Please model this.
Amino acid sequence: MREKPGKNRSMHVMSKTRLVKAVPGAAQAAAECLSRGGLVAFPTETVYGLGADATDGQAVARLYDAKGRPAFNPLIAHVPDLDAARELAVFNTDAERLAAAFWPGPLTLVLPRAVTCTVSELATAGLDSIAIRVPDHALARTILRAFGRPIVAPSANISGHVSPTNAAHVLEDLDGKIDLIVDGGPAPVGIESTIVACLDAPVILRPGGLSREQIEATLRHGLAQTVESQDETPLAPGLLQSHYAPRTAVRLNATSVAPGEVLLAFGTPLPGAKASLNLSEKGDVGEAAANLFGHLRRLDAMRAPSIAVMRIPSEGLGEAINDRLRRAAAPKVIPASSS
Ligand code: AMP
Ligand code: MG
Model:
């Protein structure tokens, strides 16, 4: 039976990085580590991924921190098969065709998030779409099956460095920052997955291990113009209409609460708010990152005149939190066709 996802399930204490060979029992050890909120690097057919429990916001926050990702660039959720993918996303005809032809394999699909989706909002950066992949690697799939929940697994390197294609590469970048590396030999494809968005007309967001020709042959029609997204750069917000921004005005670095305002607190909350949600009572930026998108959504739904946001320190994940908050506070540009 699946464990119910809970936002603050992590019981994680980091010690030093363990390196294990892909012997029997390694997948089980990886799954156990992941379920304690740990970070586990493992091979996929594309490159080595750095895995975290996709449903555990704090584990995801730790993953962004370990990689030193400058902003909450959304992550790819990995699942063992199409049935598991259907719990996370809505498949249109193009997506069905592509999944049938290329999964398992080096293809990531960006699809509308399903109501049954358990992936943390931090992992999807608050978007109402989600990127999903079924990897074609025996060890990766054994870990996914043993774990029983989706795993986010961006490349297991420091942000901006070259992607790792063997366990030694992972160790060079992440020794001491992650819990476990499962060494399953070199990654056979060695280049990241091709990302195709099937939100309306299908479009390649990132070229990768599967060619445009193969994709077009399966779709039986051409692809829209490729949208190049740099590996570590967030996809141009607004490019995909699903980009999330609260409707309510957002006021940053608040030192007091105005009448009628709701409060997004950090640490000891300011007095006087009509309603208040705390990103982290103990002032922990990792916990705050895990709560950020969910709390913003809930406060937005209250339809207050504005959301007052307390100051968040810029160290560690605070930088990415502040980046997202600045975007949320920026004047809204409403696309003509948005509903
Ligand atoms: P990586 O995990 O580093 O291989 O990169 C994941 C890529 O997937 C990034 O370039 C993201 O921008 C992209 N991505 C993930 N989720 C989404 C989404 N919902 N919409 C668009 N792009 C996404
Ligand atoms: Mg990468």
